[in-house]
Amino acid sequence: MLVAAQNQTTIPRGANGKPDLNGIWQAMTRANWDIEAHEARAGVLPALGALGAEPGGQGIVEGGAIPYLPTAAEKKKNNFEKRLELDPEAKCYLPGVPRATYMPYAFQIVQNPNSVMIVYEYASAYRNIYLKDPGEAPADSWMGQSYGRWDGDTFVIDVTAQNNKTWFDRSGNYHSDQLHVVERYTLVKPDVINYEATIEDPAVFSRPWKINMPLYRHLEKNARLGEFKCVEFAEEFLYGEYRKKD
Amino acid sequence: MKIKQAGGLIAASLLCSFTATGHHAFSAEFDLNKPINFKGVLTEVEFINPHSWFHIDVKGPDGKIQSWMIEAGTPNVLIRRGITKRSIPIGTEVVVDGFQAKNGTLRGSGRDLTLPDGRKLLIGSAEPDSK
User: Fold this and answer.
1) Among A143, B1, B22, B109, fewest CB within 10 Å belongs to which?
2) Chain B hits for A140, Cβ within 8 Å
3) Which domains does chain B have, with CATH numbers?
4) What is the ipTM for the molecules in this complex?
């Protein structure tokens, strides 16, 4: 038994004995293109050739398919067909939760016994995680309101009050303002967090469903969180038609 | 020097003309001579800046549904008055009191909403005759 204990990798813990989630993390899935399993496919702009094509992915949805209500499934289909026009990511809008977690950009968890913050490379998105229940959020927001607490060695974050303007991915998977997300972060090895999120939205889905993926620590020497401030990259896309014509 | 000054003046006037439509005068967008007062069904509430919006469906004179957008104060102003996004359930019949857009579209600046139980909720951002 002693031998088995010595063979186990010990996860780092903070001053309060809780697992130390500090670090720069990133998912390694293809979920941002489509959270359901999908084959590689042509992109929305043929002019980009293979540069604009979308890689396939095994999907991160437990059980495979997202349980849309019938009218919602129709809306998703419409979203997919018009995704270049409708995807909030194309406009550099904030991604909401959980999309922020698995976009192809790193994020940093900053954690001490009294406060937790998650800062994302994409569009300066960030979340201040309340450690005391703040009650109902006064208004909706892009990144919602996060209330976090420990369940043993798992950090559980309850996310409410997200607006209805974000998508789950680039394929038009969407939700309403009744979205309720519960995230679970478990440090299973020093450099791996197991991330699980339960998604609930009675206006869009017939039942709650879950996504699941590992988050990997950035181990580069001097790894630092970058910035992808994309508003300027979206300006031509959003406003180019209003440019003064000579 | 003259060219530089002219350039500066043009730049400044471009800036001014842009911000004039930005946001200040009620009369830039709404018409005090077009008061609106009708009953409709609340279909959506947006608590966003610079103005919150109450979306209300009304049956028009031709029997067709007209979808109105009623402009209200900022989320901060409304919340401090005790009104939140969920204060009025979607589907509630409300009476809108306000003023229509100058260009005659189905938009208005809302003064208040009267609920089925008679309560009046003040939703406006400012009095129409102030700047």
Assistant:
1) B1
2) 47, 85
3) 25-122 (2.40.50.140)
4) 0.74
